[in-house]
Design goal:
single chain; 689 residues; alpha+beta; Calcium-transporting ATPase, cytoplasmic transduction domain A; Rossmann fold; 8-stranded antiparallel sheet; 7-stranded mixed sheet; 23 helices; 16% strand; transmembrane
């Protein structure tokens, strides 16, 4: 089974950078840039300094032309670096979307008059299909749109969407009926009911989301943007008032020169939160891209953000916490029989059983007890498991071998004339159930021989993952249809915080609502139609790509690999996005402290010579100090682009420790870095000026 995982594209790829540079220049259009108000103000400031530079060349401005020209160039670079960061993040998505477009070709579909094989068909273009239409898809045909299989079963190649080359089975009924447009049937034929109009398919939504073209801002992102706009307005008012204040001060002091327009603009741009404003769009787009690298599609940015705030995880036991296939690990004899006799009876009852549990019993009988039979006797009758009898087995040579639930096995042997059952049967069954395993009672004719211990194997390393989540303050809840004894044992072994046994769809929905009423953010996984109500209620709902269409429509995140444990990775990516945004905001605001010591003394030194004491960096001249601050303000943006795209390293620790850790790195670091950077730039500017 070959898996083509999505490979992260390097941010320094030559072709990617070239495309991003071209797109960044297009984004300078004010009609596009106004959506980022802070950078829109910086662009206006750049235009003003360009005008002052022209005035300096003509002698209309007393400031040196080299100074106004250099300030103008670096302010324009500040805007370009901002649009470049967003274009680079979008470019990585566009490269991936290009491959998906190949699967979105307008193919021909066989439109049926009704949902039956043999119905009259008409060839139509895929773009003409609408919700509710029925199409016939045969071997080697490409599925023309999203839908549900309503008749038949087929092998489907979904590599165009999932990257998984191994074909999967799609069939009517059950939890594997959903098909995706752009995938190909490689064997058999199916009838599909279309569930999405053209332009609204899963593939269309994937392309738009990956490119970032229709990315909606998340609530936290909007709130942060409001804060940035408020700070920008405050600094704008401060700088606007500095001009009349400096004019008055010059008249009152009788010496010095008023603060020039170029210096005021430079001060405003350096104090405004340009760093985080420039990187904010890239952080959100890059977060969706990191999820796509894990073969996960977030249908909204809100879902990723909510994943970062999740504090309750609901996880199915089977396939998530356990491997999913129970394995026979021991035979427990009863009524004076030996383990060998129990193993032989269990083997005979399992020879025609193709389930994973049946195969594991055969394997145990061979490996531990030395039996070699691998096929049922000639002329035997296979007894298939059913929900009514809860038994399976074989009738061979006049002997009836059975295995199944304890009460069903007891009822069966009594129906054959048994007057008693082993006295310790109930005790053994309870003991196995308390150990987290499934007891399977084995009988031969009217006599119970013993019990097979079917162990539900907990996945390796899952306890460590739950420990990490617990350290982050996230509660884990296991959901299972097992009886409470078995559920409690598995929960203890896996070290989950709580469990819900014998869970029905309404139980899941009720549990989610109870947690939400207590103020928790809840995440869960699901793949069946009966999971759809709970998925729709959960704050973060992860649907398996192999699941039903109702489950996928109710969810806000789709796992293309259909791996329920991805929920843990999704939570980590969500927290990583929130951390990255918070850390870069802290760094951006902390940067302003050094700029106060650089620009304010330089701007007012001619009026108030006493401010020279604030020149703690010993910058060469007022012009050099201001230009150095502007240059640092510009170059810090591209230096932080890799961090915005990659995200802050996730550390599983309590929120309080995480806050202190990040404040020390990005808060204190944000204060120190500009002092070092501005001084280094000043030394270079002093040599060139």
């Amino acid at each position: 089974m070959a898996k083509h995982a999505q490979q992260p594209q390097s941010a320094f790829d030559r072709e990617l950078i070239g495309g991003a540079l071209a797109d960044s220049l297009k984004k300078l259009d004010p009609r596009s840039l106004w959506r980022n108000p802070v950078m829109f103000c910086v662009e206006i400031a750049s235009v003003i300094t360009l005008i002052t530079f022209v005035m300096s060349l003509t002698g209309s401005n007393r400031e040196p032309a080299w100074f106004t020209g250099a300030v103008s160039v670096w302010l324009w670079l500040t805007v370009i670096f901002s649009t470049f960061a967003e274009a680079l993040a979008e470019g990585r998505g566009k490269a991936r979307a290009a491959s998906l477009r190949k699967a979105r070709t307008d193919i021909s579909a066989k439109l049926l008059a009704g949902p039956e094989f043999g119905s009259a068909s008409t060839a139509v273009a895929a773009s003409q299909l609408r919700k509710g239409d029925y199409i016939l898809v045969e071997a080697n045909d490409m599925i023309a749109g999203d839908g549900d299989v309503v008749a038949g079963a087929a092998l489907v190649n979904e590599s165009a969407v999932t990257g998984e080359s191994a074909p999967v089975i799609r069939e009517s009924g059950g939890d594997r009926s959903a098909v995706t447009g752009g995938t190909t049937v490689i064997a058999n034929a199916i009838i599909v009911r279309i569930t999405a109009n053209p332009g609204e398919t899963f593939l269309d939504r994937m392309i738009c989301l990956i490119e970032g073209a229709k990315r909606r801002k998340t609530p936290n992102e909007i709130a942060l943007e409001v804060l940035l706009i408020a700070l920008t307005l405050v600094f704008l008012l401060v700088c606007a008032n500095m001009s009349p204040l400096s004019i008055y001060s010059v008249k009152a002091a009788g010496h010095g020169t008023p603060v020039s327009l170029t210096i005021l603009v430079a001060l405003f741009v350096c104090l405004a939160p340009t760093t985080i404003a420039a990187l904010l769009p890239a952080i959100g787009i890059a977060g969706m891209d990191r999820l796509f690298q894990k073969n996960v599609i977030a249908l909204s940015g809100r879902a990723i953000e909510a994943a970062g705030d999740v504090n309750v995880l609901l996880l199915d036991k089977t396939g998530t916490i356990t491997l999913g296939n129970r394995e026979a690990v021991a035979c427990v004899p009863l009524g004076g029989h030996s383990e060998q006799e129990v193993a032989e009876a269990a083997l005979m009852a399992s020879l025609s059983d193709e389930t994973p549990e049946g195969r594991s019993i055969v394997a145990l009988a061979r490996q531990k007890y030395g039996f070699t039979r691998d096929a049922p006797p000639a002329g035997s009758e296979a007894i298939v498991f059913s929900a009514d009898t809860r038994l399976s087995g074989i009738n061979a040579n006049g002997i009836q071998y059975r295995k199944g639930a304890a009460d069903s096995a007891v009822a069966f042997v009594r129906s054959l004339g048994a007057t008693s059952v082993p006295s310790d049967l109930g005790e053994i069954v309870d003991r196995i159930a308390r150990g987290g395993a499934t007891p399977l009672v084995v009988s031969r004719n009217e006599e119970i021989f013993g019990v097979v211990n079917l162990k539900d194997i907990v996945k390796g390393g899952i306890q460590e993952r739950f420990l990490q989540l617990r350290s982050m303050g996230i509660k884990t809840v296991m959901i299972t249809g097992d009886n409470p004894l078995t559920a409690a044992a598995i929960a203890a072994e896996a070290q989950v915080d709580d469990f819900l046994a014998q869970a029905k769809p309404e139980d899941k929905l009720r549990l989610i609502r109870e947690y939400q009423e207590q103020g928790f953010m809840v995440a869960m996984t699901g793949d069946g139609t009966n999971d759809a109500p709970a998925l729709a209620q959960a704050d973060v709902a992860v649907a398996m790509n192999t699941g039903t269409q109702p489950a996928r429509e109710a969810a806000n995140i789709i796992d293309l690999d259909s791996n329920p444990t991805k929920l843990l990775d999704i939570v980590e990516v969500g927290k990583q996005i929130l951390m990255t945004r918070g850390n870069l905001t802290t760094f951006s605001i902390s940067n302003d402290i050094a700029k106060y010591f650089a620009i304010i003394p330089a701007a007012l030194l001619s009026i108030y010579p006493q401010l020279g004491v604030l020149n703690v960096m010993h910058l060469a001249s007022p012009y050099s100090a201001i230009l150095s601050a502007v240059i640092f303000n510009a170059i810090i943006i591209p230096m932080l682009v890799p961090l915005a795209l990659k995200g802050t390293r996730f550390r599983p620790m309590p929120a309080e420790r995480l806050l202190i850790h990040n404040l020390l790195i990005y808060g204190v670091g944000g204060i120190i870095a500009p002092f070092v950077g501005i001084k280094a730039i000043d030394l270079v500017v002093g040599l060139l000026a």
